[in-house]
Design brief:
Blueprint (H helix, E strand, L loop, with lengths): L6 H25 L1 H6 L3 H61 L14 H5 L16 H41 L2 H9 L4 H74 L11 E2 L2 E5 L9 H82 L6 H4 L8
Antiparallel strand pairs: 1-2
Helix pairs in contact: 5-7
Length: about 400
């Protein structure tokens, strides 16, 4: 007969194999002390560590590629910026050359046709007219100023010579009319011009007269100033005396007013000790705060009686508290004595129990020792490793 394998047999064999594999895996997990004590899956953790390292490596490579792209872009931007600056400089130089060669200043609309060389002469001047700086016509203006000063000097010299000549003519005619023949003869013999000597004497005499008149005027002015200063001093002294007298009278009046005010305060109702002033105009229960002078005798006696009652009440309460504290102290002492007696009794009971327990333990030890001797005589076959290896072979 042929052995025909049924479907149910194959299913049962597969199920048995599957259970056998699970049992083997379970035994590996349970009998492996390291895995059982640590309680982790090392392979899974290693795979996670490898995945994390791969991920970090991929991120580092991507960052490195990004940094390389950024550096390359920065270099390209710098090159483009340099090229643009170079083109701008070349363009600006070309514009300047074109303006210099084909757009000079004299070709502009403000070029003066009647004076073609005006702007050509100002080609080197780059400052607006009217501003502080280089002046194109400074040499010509300086020359004109020097000529004008020279003309003014010549004119002043001419006017001064004319005035001196006129003074000499006037001085020569006046003294000649007063001279006699003897003076003229003496002057002719001494070869001295009498006209010039008299003019100088007259000039000196006029100067002396002017000096004397100036001294008189100065003396009169000093006398006037001295008089004004004396009058001012007297006026100031008079005003000072009046002010001092006025201040003295004001001080006396103020002292008198202060003395009168003090007397009024001392003799008035404000500083008096009358208790009727404290009663308000609305009635006896009310008091006036600004005129209150203290309590009456009846009110003081009532307050003293109230205070004495409070003192007596406080003393009574303190006596009751002391009595209660004494009772509590007695109760605590009695409780402590009772607790001490109970502790001593419990100690005696514990000592007795300990003695009884020691005797019992000694009896048990003796019985255990006798049983051990009996077992050593009865059980002579000692189990070895082969006996213990038959246990703990399944995970169930």
């Amino acid at each position: 007969m042929y052995n025909a394998e049924l479907l149910s047999d194959r299913i049962a064999a597969a199920s048995l194999e599957r259970r056998r594999n699970r049992e083997m895996q379970r035994q590996d997990r349970i009998f492996n002390a390291k895995v059982r004590t640590i309680g982790i899956d090392k392979e899974a953790l290693d795979s996670q560590v490898n995945e994390r390292k791969k991920k970090e490596q991929a991120e580092a490579e991507s960052l490195k590629a990004y940094a390389a792209d950024a550096v390359r872009n920065d270099k390209a931007a710098c090159l483009l910026d340099q090229c643009q600056l170079k083109d701008e400089r070349l363009l600006q130089g070309a514009i300047e050359d074109f303006r210099l060669n084909f757009q000079p200043r004299w070709s502009r609309r403000e070029y003066d046709l009647s004076n073609p060389d005006k702007i050509r002469g100002q080609e080197k001047i780059q400052m607006l007219p009217g501003l502080v700086g280089e002046d194109p016509d400074s040499q010509g203006r300086l020359k004109k100023q020097q000529e004008q000063l020279r003309e003014w000097s010549f004119q002043q010299q001419h006017e001064l010579a004319t005035a001196r000549h006129q003074q000499r003519q006037e001085g020569r005619l006046q003294p000649v009319l007063m001279l006699d023949t003897d003076t003229l003869t003496a002057s002719s013999q001494n070869n001295i011009c009498p006209c010039l000597t008299l003019a100088e004497q007259q000039y000196d005499q006029d100067r002396v007269d002017l000096d004397n008149k100036a001294l008189q005027l100065q003396t009169i002015e000093e006398e006037r100033r001295r008089t004004v200063a004396l009058a001012t001093k007297n006026f100031n002294l008079t005003k000072a005396a009046e002010n001092a007298e006025k201040r003295w009278k004001e001080w006396q009046q103020q002292e008198e007013d202060n003395r009168t005010d003090i007397l009024n305060q001392l003799q008035g109702e404000l500083l008096s000790e009358s208790q009727e002033q404290g009663i308000s105009v609305l009635g006896l229960p009310r008091l006036s705060p600004n005129s209150y002078k203290g309590l009456a005798d009846e009110q003081l006696q009532h307050i003293i009686n109230c205070q004495q009652q409070q003192i007596d009440e406080k003393r009574r309460i303190q006596a009751e508290q002391q009595q209660e504290e004494l009772q509590q102290d007695r109760f605590r002492v009695a409780s402590a004595r009772t607790a001490l007696l109970m502790e001593r009794q419990q100690a005696r009971i514990n000592k007795q129990l300990r003695r009884t327990q020691d005797n019992t333990n000694a009896q048990l030890a003796e019985a255990h020792h006798e049983q051990t001797k009996y077992l050593e005589k009865v059980y002579t076959n000692i189990p070895d490793d082969s006996y213990f290896s038959q246990f703990n072979t399944s995970s169930r």
